[in-house]
Amino acid sequence: MIFCWIYKQVIAHSLDANRALPERIQSHVRSCPECRGFQESEIRLTERLIGHAARHSETPPPFLHGKIVAALDQDSRRGEAERSGFRPGWSAALVSLSLVLISALAVHLFQPARIASELDHSPETQAVSTTDESLRSVVKLPDVEMLRVWSQNLDQPLETELQSVVHDARQTFQFFAQNFLPDQF
Amino acid sequence: MLVEQFEKRIFNFLYHFTGNSHDAEDITQETFLKAYQNMHRYDSAYAFATWLFTIAKRTAISHFRSKKPSEELSADTEADLADPSAALEAKEERVSLWNLAKTLKSNQYETLWLRYGEGFSIAEIAQVMNTNQIHVKVLLHRARRHLAKRLRPPTNAS
Question: Which of A12, A17, A55 sits opposite B144 (nearest CB)?
């Protein structure tokens, strides 16, 4: 009887673990009606539990799938924005700063008066004016006074040009702001 | 898609765990979100289902830590109130095997469901329940023994 109790434990554990019974236990079960009855009832119970599980299942609400997918999608978008380091405020500031720098650079590079003045005092210009007389005879180079007059005349078109550059930049910025920045900007 | 493959199983598990479809729905959604966010932590050496069920179980525990589970009027109770014949059917259903299993201790019922409802191995159940395999075997053994005892009277009567 005490052995039967042990055998029953082994039978139950073997069934739980989906393992075949050891040969010694099997031979005991064959000869012992009590253990055989226990094994049969355990197998029946297992089969009923598995069979009834499908019937016992609950059907998820119809919108659950959509809700899960929407939540995942929202989280995915938020994650992508964080990974790319996208911050609408920072982007706007960065674009503005870039435009200011480009404008400043344009003013610095295309200022004719300053270029003319630099040319007056640069050693290269002096070298050209003093040493290369033969070149002057072939190509009529403008003298300092002429360059000054030209630069004064060029100031007006340069201002217009700069205004046009700033206008273009502003339009570009507005285009970016309308198309790529969120609504609150 | 993983959601399609597992949503019903996870919902079912949580429904049995919580006994409430609203909570089960919320926790199912939260489970998939957590799984997605922690996908990099998943170790492919283990079954994906086990990992997902582990998340579901932990999410349910933390959900109820912050919120008392809301009682839901069961289908049987509703039937009792509405229609006597439906109540009789409900009574018959009430004595069905898994409804009887619900009267077991929650961890025994959970072990039974994971083993026979979900078909997990002992090792997988241990992982989901955050315990060792010996404890799972003991729980399973006790659950089956108690269930067999509760099933005995109608069996003897027939």
Answer: A12
